Amino acid sequence: MVNTTYQVQGMTCGHCVSAVSAEVGALPGVHDVQVDLATGRVTVSSDQPLDVASVRAAVDEAGYDLVDGSSGGPA
């Protein structure tokens, strides 16, 4: 299991957290998504490291932005 943390901007409420969690959680191999609204940190547990472009696309689909330079890293 790999835990990776990303920085997301634009989230302001519980709905934001739910939207990001649902979109990122739908990526293949993802087991868990934890979103910290206060910091914008999204920690993803997955079978293997995720492609940052896939995570960015999922966050974009939810209506938010993966912070530039947020290439993910060990949580």
UniProtKB/TrEMBL annotation:
Highest taxon, organism lineage: Bacteria
Pfam (any one): HMA
InterPro entries attached to this UniProt entry: Heavy-metal-associated_CS (IPR017969), HMA_Cu_ion-bd (IPR006122), HMA_dom (IPR006121), HMA_dom_sf (IPR036163)
SUPFAM superfamilies found in the cross-reference section: HMA, heavy metal-associated domain (SSF55008)
Keywords carried by this UniProt record: Copper, Metal-binding
Keyword Disulfide bond: no
Gene3D superfamilies attached to this UniProt entry: 3.30.70.100
Domain HMA: 2-67
Name this polypeptide is given: Heavy-metal-associated domain-containing protein
Protein source organism: Micromonospora parastrephiae
Lineage: Bacteria, Bacillati, Actinomycetota, Actinomycetes, Micromonosporales
